[in-house]
Model the fold of this input.
Amino acid sequence: MNHPQRLEQMIRIAHRAGDMIVQARQKQNFSHDYKGGDELVTEVDVAVDQMIADELEALFPGEARLTEELAPDRSQLEQRGPLWVVDPIDGTVNFAYGHAHVAVSIAWAVDGEVQLGVVHAPFLGETFTATRGQGAQLNEESMHCSRPTTLERSLVATGFPYARDKRGPLIRRLNHVVHACRDVRRNGSAALDLCHVGCGQLDAYYESVSPWDFAAGLLIAREAGASTSHLYECPEGIPVELYGENLLVSAPDIHDALGDLLRDADAERPLAP
Done:
């Protein structure tokens, strides 16, 4: 199956997943649980993950999968060959509380390089897609990132980990960003934040997240013209495009300045006057 055919199937599966999510929200009869003590998960996450797994196995038998609920073994990242990276519901807390920033994220990588990405937001009516080297689309229309030239004119998104004891250092980053940038958004879906950088609804995004949260969105943002990097060097053995610690994605002209600002916060250096 060639890339356009794969992408077509990914879009179809993502839309089917989105329909399941919308129907579950309407019925409001799903159960809640917690994994790792802090992170909310619902039976809908698991059901959607299973549906996507069944579809992918039927279409692409034997291809490896890394998914948030059913196959979270990150050792897959170190293997060569094709790999599906899936988040059945990115924004589970938003889903459970009735907010709109909820997405299905499906990425297809080969030898650690993401080739295809789909992020579908059923409550927003947005479907983002990208093919490596061929640009990005929102609802089948070409899209491009914004072009601010200063941090003062930039809208920045971020997120915070579920573990409360890990939030302290991130507050220092937030303090620097709040004082240096136009404003901050915390929307609760990394996949959508990345896509919204790509289409210009946001100017930048930074966070540390899991591969399934960002694999598709990072490709989409990059193909839309955004600059992508990590604040610090990535470890050996894990593909850079699937390593989610200290991600920074932004409009090109503010990328270096925002990176410097965040590293200053980490080093507890004061804000420049």
Remarks:
- The longest strand covers residues 82-90.
- The chain has a mean pLDDT of 93.
